[in-house]
Amino acid sequence: MSSIITRFAPSPTGYLHIGGARTALFNWLFARHFGGTFRLRIEDTDRQRSTDDAIEKIFEGMRWLGLDWDGDVVHQFARAPLHAAQAQRLIAEDKAYYCYCTPEELTAMREDAKAKGLPPRYNGYWRDRDPAEAPAGVKPTVRLKAPREGETVIGDLVQGEVRFPNTELDDMILLRSDGTPTYMLSVVVDDHDMNITHVIRGDDHLTNTARQTQLYLALGWDVPAFAHIPLIHGPDGAKLSKRHGALGVDAYRDLGYLPEAMRNYLLRLGWSHGDDETISTEQAIEWFGLESVGRSPARFDFAKLDNLNGHYLRVADNTRLAGLVAADLAKAGIEVDATGLDRIAKAMDGLKARAKTLVQLTDSARFLVSKRPLALDARAEKILSVDGKDKLAALRAAVADLDSFSAAQIEGAARAMAEAAGAKLGDFAQPLRAALSGSNVSPPIFEVAEILGRVESLGRIDDALGR
Prior knowledge:
- It is a single chain.
- The chain has 19 helices and twelve strands.
- It has 467 residues and is mainly alpha-helical.
- Its EC number is 6.1.1.17.
């Protein structure tokens, strides 16, 4: 398969939500798999709700996820005259017509259909009437002369063959009464002009696709291949909402997820490759195909996302993670200098072993760059009771003048003291942990002491002893 061109076409009326991010990912992967082209189009025809800030948020979300697009971004609103010109062509070819129904008449039409137990839709009142009969002062819409008999068939690459009786599809509006194009017209013209070969989107667009297929045929254009992917549901099976995790991509970034973890997780929401759960981006590009997209809604699960993110944290480069942690600390008002950054990087193996998110990683690294005297939490205070302080004081005396202030030598001194006292290593290690980290949990504490260095470690011990 060659010359594949896909697109992601969000409306900038809010953030890049998680469902949109997955749609973007699937289009990106499909294009990259076949060596094709992935385009980005901003569908900004809703001028009241479209904002520059929302457009920038979409760009930020795409860049953070690592979904690069090809060519310039297309802004739909700028192409409105081209959309309108195609509607006028259809009128000239007697494939569309002016409709002069007032809003009140359309409401009465829908109410009449409901009363007869029929779906509420336009009845074609102006389809074959002479425009000369038009009432004065009414600005018309332009409607497509949709076929009234037979079926519109979609050979969907995920859903299979989907058939729509044409009696269920009315004459849709192409141009509003103010002359502006509707979404349905704009999408078809843009996809044609951008040479889109495959439209991959949520299955809530299936009815739109039937209507758009009628428009493609009326315009005499090739119909692109369609693939409608199931929507994402919450863990309870209900449609995904904010309480489930329907947040903007930027919110997941702020919650401490890595972009590679999000890509992997979104990939597995509705697509599978055997029993593989952890799939690199390189593997995803190599393996991705629409034949492996399921037809059932995927369920969003924060626990699975956390576990996956924990995996990616553990295999991530320590220097990169240290930079991310330092940036998060800076947002919290804690500036990290070169010494602090070096400490975080050296401690990273121990820090990331327990963390599931960057937020947790940042919280656990904070003590490394905290100013003296260190604040102690309640557990640390308890550890540094009279007995704990006595052991800490003895340990300080033993390590203060070590030839090498290394983890191995510090641990050796603590172990020798514990054996001499008939105690456990932890009886000496825990007071040291409380003094150096301000808590009862930390990366391996003898490594922490080495990372902090002789001067800082002894200073923190003295602060704890002097409390």
